[in-house]
From TrEMBL:
Gene3D superfamilies: P-loop containing nucleotide triphosphate hydrolases. Residues 4-229 form the ABC transporter domain. It comes from Sporosarcina saromensis. It holds the Pfam family ABC_tran. The lineage of its organism: Bacteria, Bacillati, Bacillota, Bacilli, Bacillales. GO terms for molecular function: ATP binding. Keywords: ATP-binding, Nucleotide-binding, Transport. This is ABC transporter ATP-binding protein. The keyword Iron does not apply.
Length: 229
């Protein structure tokens, strides 16, 4: 998949008689291989935008096209297949299954899927890519926060997605570990060609990106390519 386009994208949440416009008339395009940061204060709509792009949620108005195809208009199975093929997610809380080893966690996206490669070999390959092959039999509780996030990254890329969507992936990590996680994302972006779209609060981390999108109250305040801070 080469191009993601958000057209007049809008997401509203109803509650207690009020409507929150989490994403307000957003128009953005993303191209294959980009390394993009989304910044903005808490509540500005960053996570909602990422969920919409990742097909985890549906817009209230407007649309998203993936190579001109409106996937969200399709049935649940088609959307799930699309997500499996094209998208990998990383979250602040890692979301590893505590009773599974690192290797087993990385294998989870492949459990119920047919793939044209050996699943265990592929899982080992990505664990090697994130520098954790020697920890493949460790449980999450036996790993540091940075190592757990590396396992989560391996799990996010094991099925060879075109896009990696990361929502504050270093929110639970110290500065130095966080910087290393971003270096790893950049490496994957350059070596595997995975487009990366990441949310962060931290302007220093955002400055590692080639493109910085700033959100405020659901709106895109600025969209700078090749920006430096
Ligand atoms: P950010 O990730 O930038 O902190 P969010 O996208 O999480 O912002 O939220 C944007 C706005 O939408 C906030 O006002 C938030 O309270 C609201 N919001 C997000 N998700 C929901 C939801 N599921 N139900 C109701 N309101 C929501
Ligand atoms: Mg958020």
């Amino acid at each position: 998949m080469n191009v993601i386009e958000c057209k007049n994208l809008q997401k509203e949440f109803e509650g207690d008689g009020t409507t929150t416009v989490a994403v307000n008339n957003v128009n953005l395009s993303f191209h294959k291989g980009e390394f993009t940061a989304v910044i903005g204060t808490s509540g500005s709509g960053k996570s909602t935008l990422l969920s919409l792009i990742g097909t985890l949620d549906k817009p209230s108005k407007g649309k998203i096209t993936y190579d001109n195809e409106e996937i969200l208009k399709k049935g649940k199975n088609k959307i799930a297949d699309f997500r499996f093929q094209e998208i990998g997610f990383i979250f602040q809380q890692f979301h590893l299954l505590p009773t599974l080893t690192a290797l087993e966690n990385v294998l989870t996206p492949l459990f119920s899927r047919k793939v044209p490669y050996d699943k265990v070999e592929r899982a080992k390959e990505v664990l090697k890519q994130v520098g954790l092959l020697d920890k493949m039999n460790a449980l999450p509780s036996q790993l540091s926060g940075g190592q757990q996030q590396r396992v989560a990254i391996a799990r996010a890329i094991v099925h060879k997605p075109s896009w990696l969507l990361a929502d504050e992936p270093t929110g639970n990590l110290d500065t130095e570990t966080g910087a290393k996680i971003y270096d790893l994302l950049k490496e994957l972006n350059e070596q595997v060609g995975c487009g990366v779209l990441f949310v962060t609060h931290d302007p220093v981390l955002a400055a590692k990106a080639n493109r910085i999108i700033t959100m405020k109250d659901g709106n895109v305040l600025s969209d700078k390519v090749g920006a430096t801070i």
